[in-house]
Amino acid sequence: MIHYPSDCRSDNMGDKKRDIEHKFLLEVIATYESLPALWKIKSDDYMNRDKKADAYNVLLQNYKEHFPEATLEGLRKKLNSLRTKKKTKGEKKEEKEKQKKRRKKN
C-alpha cells in the first residue's frame, strides 16, 4: 500500500491514489510483457526454472518500488488476478459483440 503525507487528505485523494497505482500497474505489466520467460509458453526460457526465477526477481524488484512489503507469492497472486480480469473483460466484450450481431440479424 502506498502511504501519503497527512496533508494530502482531500476529496480527490482517492482518485489521485488510484491514478498513481493504475500507472504503476501499467509499468509492472509492461515489465511482465518484456519477460517472456513468465508468459510465452513456446519460449525455451519458459521451461527453464532458473531463467523464470530470475525474471520473477526482476519483476518483484520493480513491484517493490511501490509496495516494499511485497512477496513473490503476493506478486504471483496479483498477476493471476490481472490475467483473470483481462480474460473476463475480453469474454464480456465478445458476448456483447455477439448480442449486437444477433440484434442486427433480427
UniProtKB/TrEMBL annotation:
Residues 29-101 form the MADF domain. Residues 75-106 are annotated as: Disordered. Transmembrane segments: none annotated. InterPro entries: MADF-dom. Residues 77-90 have a biased composition (Basic residues). PANTHER family: DPT-YFP REPRESSOR BY OVEREXPRESSION, ISOFORM D-RELATED, MADF DOMAIN-CONTAINING PROTEIN-RELATED. This is MADF domain-containing protein. The lineage of its organism: Eukaryota, Metazoa, Echinodermata, Eleutherozoa, Echinozoa.
